[in-house]
Design brief:
The protein has one domain: Rossmann fold, CATH 3.40.50.720. Helices cover 43% and strands 14% of the residues. The protein contains 12 helices and 7 strands. Strands 3-2-1-4-5-7-6 form a 7-stranded mixed β-sheet. β1, α5 and β2 form a beta-alpha-beta unit. The longest helix is centred in the first third of the chain and has 19 residues. The site of S-adenosylmethionine has 21 residues, from α5.
């Protein structure tokens, strides 16, 4: 479905997916604004997901994903995405994160329901194809509290490991790590930046919501919610090199709008000490 035709009002998509999608102020851009969930709410999500995989749904979903990956691979969006990664400037950033290591593991947070929605399927297709195309991308780990047992089984048959623990984004990049966090809430990015505040920021790359857009939102709308929930994101902004993802066509807009690669400055340690948060 063309992104511009999608319903933009806040919606509860399923009983266990309480996303808040907020209307933008202008054009076709939408923002996933930060939302704070209590530990009780987060726990509740766990109880609502199914416990046993359904083989029939599993095979249907796997077929759907194979078709999605195939279509994605031949898209103009994917070609543009690959071209962008392979520019010397971006490749150098990746090599600098890799250092002397040969592989960069990928951690995917917040993919959403791959069974219920096309957007998470497109986002997953991109992750799988990146791994296929680049030998330096290592194992893929996935976590989203809303993943069902069926979805987890399918992810595993596509070669991903599904984490059983909710890290709340607090993973430290003690080895080179690509965090793939498509359209997550600001709080999760903030947890990640905070957990890596210091030397480990250099060992990570983040593909997720544009930090520049959060900054801009604070400037334009004086959003105190973002100031409070994305404190570390806003603080690390000026030490971040950001490259935005081109959505190219409406078909990929919903899945990748406002998304960027984020690399963190190699002279970070000294500079971070100077940044007040
Ligand atoms: C705004 S939705 C985005 C879903 C999908 N990527 C998309 O673009 O439609 C945010 C997702 O983050 C997930 N999430 C919430 N807390 C999380 C956590 N601690 N770790 C990983 N994912 C989390 C939610 O369940 C939800 O699927």
């Amino acid at each position: 479905m063309a992104a511009s035709a999608r319903v933009l009002t806040p919606e509860i998509r399923t009983v266990n997916e309480d996303w808040t999608v907020v209307l933008p102020c202008c054009g076709r851009q939408r923002r996933n604004l930060p939302r704070i969930r209590s530990p009780e709410e987060q726990q509740k999500q766990w109880f609502l997901t199914e416990l046993v995989s359904d083989p029939h749904r599993e095979s249907k979903l796997l077929q759907k994903l194979h078709a999605c990956i195939k279509k994605f691979e031949s898209s103009e969006f994917f070609q543009t995405f690959l071209d962008q990664i392979q520019t010397p400037e971006i490749l150098n950033h990746f090599y600098s994160v890799l250092g002397s290591e040969l592989k960069m593991q990928m951690v995917i947070y917040g993919i959403g329901s791959i069974e219920s929605y096309e957007t998470p399927r497109l986002q997953l297709s991109l992750a799988i194809l990146m791994k296929r195309k680049f030998s330096w991308i290592g194992d893929i780990e996935v976590f989203d509290p809303i993943l069902s047992a069926t979805e987890s089984r399918v992810l595993e048959s596509l070669g991903c490991s599904v984490l059983s623990v909710n890290e709340q984004g607090h993973r430290r990049a003690i080895k080179p790590t690509l965090f793939y966090m498509p359209h997550c809430e600001a709080e999760l990015y903030d947890n990640l930046v905070r957990a890596n505040w210091g030397v480990t920021l250099k060992g990570m790359v983040l593909l997720g919501n544009s930090f520049a857009t959060y900054d801009q939102h604070v400037d334009e709308y004086k959003s105190s919610v973002i100031v409070d929930t994305a404190r570390h994101v806003l603080a690390v902004r000026r030490l971040t090199r950001e490259f935005s993802i081109q959505t190219v066509s409406d078909d990929y807009f919903a899945a990748f709008h406002d998304s960027s690669w984020h690399f963190f400055s190699p002279d970070l340690e000294a500079e971070l000490q100077l940044v007040e948060i």
